[in-house]
């Protein structure tokens, strides 16, 4: 039987003209007995949008018919963009009038109509909805006498859901609810639905986070058969398994993590070799020893694809019995690892490596702060407590510095944007928000994990076996060109052309602006000009790290790609990579890469939203107070100001009453018509907190 890939390849050929199903069957010599399966394959390809069936029942790929297939990314302003399934195509702008009933995240087909606007952007009209993404909507119920409406929490869903009186199911005004859509929107008609769950009043403690969990469909519980499988796993490592592996229990191996981490999936050791080189050991929890391919645990892990770290809880990829128990590299207990030894010279080059199954017994469960205090402050109490490890920590610092310099030399871009740390009390109220520290110990782990991920990716690439790479593609030339025009205002210019910009050019720019007033604005806009990193079965390199080979190998407790990679490595070690297995793995890695990229984006959005929620709640306790901040972005109706504690709020342009301010989109600024006074990204301003809407996660400032 012909495969989907071969059919698509055939239809993409320049000489191809749309064909009937029977004509395609003749081309591929489909036997009578295979015809049913072949027609089912064509139906499936039509359903998922990879081929289009014309009115004359002929099949063709969308791009040859002036059509694009992808996910609709709606905006709060009503218009949207289609992110094409075909990653070689640019995003397509869709005006609000051409959405034709499509909603945020729906999979759609659009007809290209023209190039839009000054930048000549592609524009389209949605002609078909392939797959609806929002069967259930989380929002606030608003009641009237004979019916109600649900206003979605997600502002990108512009439609209110009409609820007939018979389908209100006990919901009251101001309550957070889940509404199931029973009738989809049409061009001039709202969707209809019914209330399927009432979550609680929007102002009740806990309702806010639960609403976000439901909005992003994050799984709150593990299915019974998954928990049953986890419960059947032993809490200790068997002697038989230890005997089969390389025994590393005698070595000075430690974990270094945040103080509140419970899923410890990486441990390290460093020693100096007689030839002066370093021997770096990275030991990663051997999750695949316990999570077998195709088992209930494995299927659930793939479904979740990542652990989600919300502000007050973790929604793990694996049950606690594994994530905090037998897989976690806890101190002074035997644990199974996928281990990598790397010999690294004084220039940071990996001159030799070895990948094998090991058994370890970590000596200490170190925290970032303790190791940093030993190295940065020489804390006497800690020096005494960990005296037998201090020389190891110093050697780790020495090696991490060498690795960092090597990464720098090749052009790796290091954005040092501060992450926020939100501290809650027992009731879940935010009592403090501060910048998370990125100290020497954090950098040591970062450098060691990067070099390990690169070593694994390059090793597997040359084996030419199916694999899951972490890729970060070269940015779109149009975005780099626009960014170059913008930095020209500050007297900067990127080396090279916008078509073949090298990460070194961006790194050089970051060095030039360090500590300057414009640093924040330029680094923010640079980040926005880059593509999003994702998982892929193809090795496309990692632009941001200036790396030819990269993967995620070091966190299999909390990321599915890492777990899948371990499985392929185990096949390699056991010499199981025969033609049959390789053929099966192709489909497995493609599916794992797509699923993991999708779920990662969902996790990032959910994490960001819970942070924004708690930041708004925190600022609601500081109404009327003044703070210093930096303008972080400028939009047509105002500007966002970021405070020292990472909280962002909006200054509406209507509150600036000393002049009439004109918005200059290209230069990201407002300019006073009479006074020529400007407000530009990166400017320092003093603000006052005037209004907070916690449920909308909105904070309003005025300039003092």
Which features would summarize this protein structure in a list?
704 residues, alpha+beta, Arc Repressor Mutant, subunit A, 5-stranded antiparallel β-sheet, 17 helices, 31% helix
User: Quaternary status of these chains?
Assistant: single chain
**Order of strands side by side in the largest beta sheet?**
5-4-3-6-7
- Overall outline: globular
Query: What percent strand?
Result: 25-35%
Give the radius of gyration: 28 Å
**Secondary structural class:** alpha+beta
Percent of residues in helical segments?
25-40%
The biggest beta sheet, please? 5 strands, antiparallel
Give start-end ranges of low-pLDDT stretches. none
- Span between termini: 71 Å
> Number of DSSP strands?
33
- The domain tally reads 6
If helices are DSSP runs of H or I spanning 4 or more residues, what is the number of helices? 17
What does the average pLDDT come to?
Answer: 92
């Amino acid at each position: 039987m012909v495969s989907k890939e071969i059919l698509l390849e055939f239809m993409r050929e320049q000489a191809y003209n749309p064909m009937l199903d029977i004509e395609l069957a003749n081309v591929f010599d489909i036997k009578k007995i295979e015809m049913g399966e072949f027609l089912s394959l064509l139906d499936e390809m039509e359903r998922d949008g990879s081929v289009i069936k014309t009115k004359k029942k002929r099949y063709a790929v969308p791009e040859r018919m002036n059509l694009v297939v992808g996910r609709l990314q709606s905006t709060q302003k009503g218009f949207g963009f289609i992110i094409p399934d075909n990653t070689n195509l640019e995003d397509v702008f869709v005006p609000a009038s051409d959405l034709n009933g499509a909603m945020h995240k729906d999979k759609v087909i659009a007809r290209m109509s023209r190039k839009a606007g000054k930048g000549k952007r592609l524009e389209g009209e949605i002609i078909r909805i392939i797959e609806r993404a929002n069967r259930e909507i989380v929002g606030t119920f608003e009641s009237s006498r004979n019916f109600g409406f649900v206003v979605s929490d997600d502002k990108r869903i512009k439609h209110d859901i009409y609820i007939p009186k018979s389908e209100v199911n006990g919901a009251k005004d101001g309550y957070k609810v889940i509404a199931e859509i029973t009738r989809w929107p049409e061009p001039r008609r709202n969707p209809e639905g019914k209330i399927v769950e009432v979550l609680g009043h929007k102002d009740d403690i806990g309702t806010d986070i639960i609403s976000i969990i439901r909005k992003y469909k994050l799984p709150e519980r593990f299915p019974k058969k998954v928990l049953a499988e986890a419960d059947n796993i032993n809490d200790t490592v068997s002697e038989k398994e230890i005997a089969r592996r390389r025994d590393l229990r005698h070595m000075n191996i430690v974990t270094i993590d945040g103080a509140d981490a419970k899923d410890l999936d990486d441990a390290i050791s460093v020693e100096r070799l007689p030839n002066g080189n370093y021997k770096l050991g990275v030991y990663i929890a051997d999750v695949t020893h316990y999570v077998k391919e195709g088992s209930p645990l494995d299927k659930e892990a793939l479904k979740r694809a990542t652990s989600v770290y919300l502000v007050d809880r973790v929604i793990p990829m694996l049950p606690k019995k594994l994530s905090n128990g037998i897989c976690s590299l806890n101190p002074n207990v035997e644990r199974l690892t996928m281990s990598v030894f790397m010999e690294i010279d004084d220039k940071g080059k990996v001159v030799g490596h070895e990948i094998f199954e090991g058994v370890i017994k970590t000596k200490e469960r170190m925290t970032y702060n303790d190791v940093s205090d030993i190295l940065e402050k020489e804390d006497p109490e800690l020096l005494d407590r960990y005296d037998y490890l201090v020389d190891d920590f110093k050697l780790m610092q020495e090696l991490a510095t060498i690795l960092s310099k090597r990464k720098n030399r090749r052009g790796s871009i290091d954005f040092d944007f501060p992450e926020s740390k939100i501290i809650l009390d027992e009731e879940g109220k935010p009592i403090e928000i501060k910048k998370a520290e990125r100290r020497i110990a954090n950098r040591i782990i970062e450098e060691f994990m990067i070099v390990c991920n690169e070593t694994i990716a390059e090793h597997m690439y040359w084996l030419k076996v199916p694999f899951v790479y972490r890729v970060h593609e070269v940015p779109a030339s149009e975005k780099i060109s626009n960014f170059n025009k913008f930095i020209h205002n500050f007297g900067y210019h990127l080396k090279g052309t916008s078509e073949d910009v090298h990460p070194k050019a961006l790194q050089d720019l970051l060095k030039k602006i360090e500590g300057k007033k414009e640093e924040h604005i330029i680094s923010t806009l640079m980040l926005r000009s880059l593509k999003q990193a994702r998982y892929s079965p193809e090795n496309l390199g990692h632009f941001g790290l200036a790396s030819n080979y990269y993967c995620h190998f070091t966190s299999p407790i909390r990321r599915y790609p890492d777990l899948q990679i371990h499985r392929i490595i185990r096949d390699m070690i056991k010499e199981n990579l025969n033609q049959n297995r390789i053929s099966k793995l192709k489909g497995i890695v493609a599916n794992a890469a797509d699923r993991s990229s999708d779920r990662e984006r969902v996790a990032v959005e959910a994490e960001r939203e819970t942070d924004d929620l708690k930041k708004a709640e925190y600022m609601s306790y500081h109404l009327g107070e003044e703070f210093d901040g930096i303008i972080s972005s400028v939009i047509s109706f105002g500007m966002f100001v970021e405070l020292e504690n990472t909280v962002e709020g909006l200054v509406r342009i209507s509150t600036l009453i000393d002049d009439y301010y004109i918005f200059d989109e290209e230069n990201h600024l407002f300019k006073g018509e009479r006074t020529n006074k400007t407000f530009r990204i990166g400017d320092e301003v003093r603000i006052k907190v005037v209004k907070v809407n916690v449920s909308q996660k909105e904070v309003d400032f005025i300039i003092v």
